[in-house]
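Sequence decides. Our protein:
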Amino acid sequence: HFGSSVGRSTALSISVPPLTTAGNTAASSPFATSPSLQPKMDSSADTQNQIHQMTQFILNEAKDKAEEISAKALQEFSIEKLKIVNATKEKIRQDYERKLKQKETENAIKRSTAINRSRLDQIKARQEVITKISDDSKAGLKEKLKSSGAQSEFITKLIVQGLLMLLEEDVQVRCRASDDSVVSGCLEAAAAEFSKIISQETGAKKTVKLSLDTSVKLPTTCLGGVVLACQKGTITIDNTIDSRLDLVLEQAKPTIRKLLFNQ
């Protein structure tokens, strides 16, 4: 500060007396501080001190503000991070629940499909068993009816049974072409048996006229038996071996299931 004060010597009006003796050289030195310069130097030091204090205050304020901003930013970051983490967790949970339900649905469908397939296989296997029983029965009937005596008796009973259901006076009998001779030989006996049964059951006398239908024949695939027709063919009674066997098997299915399938 002194140097700057000296530089402004003119403005401060510093008076430097002339040198006279060596004894007063120190007292009259041009570098001695003038009494009028000391307050200016103190004022400059105070100013510098105030500036320094203001600078420190500003720096402290800036530091505090920076710390406050940093803490607020960290707090906001933590909050946003927590929101993102929670949202991600919720999304993962929802995805997991959706996939779990989807998997449960798929497993339920697979289980239901497996159960249905098992039931269908079981039904198919049972039906195959019943079909085999039917085929074996047909084969057994064919073998048994090879005897002409057994066949005639069987055909006669089939005709009588049909007549008792119709209770008509004029009935035509249809059969396979290969059975014409056998059926023709049974007509008279069947009519007599019908009249006998009616008389025994009701006491009335009733006769029937039987004739062989030569225009309509049963298919060759038929096992045998007869079809009775009356009223110009509008009323028929199917008493073929095939229909009788199907009826018996249908009625016997509960018994067959109980015996073979434990039901």
